[in-house]
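Write out this protein's structure.
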Amino acid sequence: MSENAVWIFLPLEVVVAVVCCLGNALVIWAVRAGGSLRKPTFCFITALAVADFLVGSVAIPLGVLVDVGMKISFYGCLFMCCNLIMIETASVILLLAIAVDRFLRVHIPLTYKTTVTVKRSWTVVKLCWFMAALISFVPMFGWNKSEDLGNLDSTVHSNSTSFKCHFLSVVSSSYVVKLCFFSSFLPVLAIVTGLYCYIFLTTRRRLRAQIGVRIESGTNYLKEQRLAASLALVYVLFAVGWIPLLLMHTVKLYSKPETVPSSVMHVGVLLSHASSALNPLVYSFRIPVINKAFRELWVRFFHCRAQQQNDPNNVQTNTDSNTKNSTT
């Protein structure tokens, strides 16, 4: 990518990183403050918000270092890139866990609370991160471009710190396409799509069956449908953000690398990161518990500011303090 394009791309990445960190930190606070961590679904939502927070605080800064071509050892660069992959892979697996949780809520409504507990939910979250690490650190054990170092200058080798770090210089395109895209992302995409189709069809059928029978039961089904729709929207945003980039990697693997310009690849990277920044908006507008916590925070913040500005004792104290300091 040209130098001018870099200076356009990097500020946008910084903006996305800041929005990711602030938005998802607020989501984590809102779920905790609202006491929703006692519900298994919100354990998974919090875990996904943590992954999105790591996109802004870890993945994007590491990506920037890789983009500017910092000089480091080959395996140091590869380790950084594997961490980038791990955070995004964890998001994919957590989205699958959320879909399975919603499926169980609809499929076994009577035994759901005893089957899906908070303790088990956090165990599943740990397993999701473990699976993400297994998939993401495969390149560290051989599926990488270390063999291409022989085609470079003889002074550059795997232990040299003069290696110019770039993602596609260390990570094999075949690994990204065949393992990450074809073997991980697409199967999860198909499973999650099928689960949400089942959820919406089932809740719709049960809502129709409850019309004029039990208002309370119908209301519960409606709440489940709305929550599932909100979480499905998060999944759709993630898929829309990541599919273009993964398709570009596929095109580069099965055709000439020059087919996809570097600037277009970076637009794809930016789009994939943007999905993590948009998730807090979905939570805040479509999930009542988080929306309520956000409104309470907003009211509390402005109430405190107004109270500080209108409190005469505070003004008098500040005046006396300033007078004392000037006299001294």
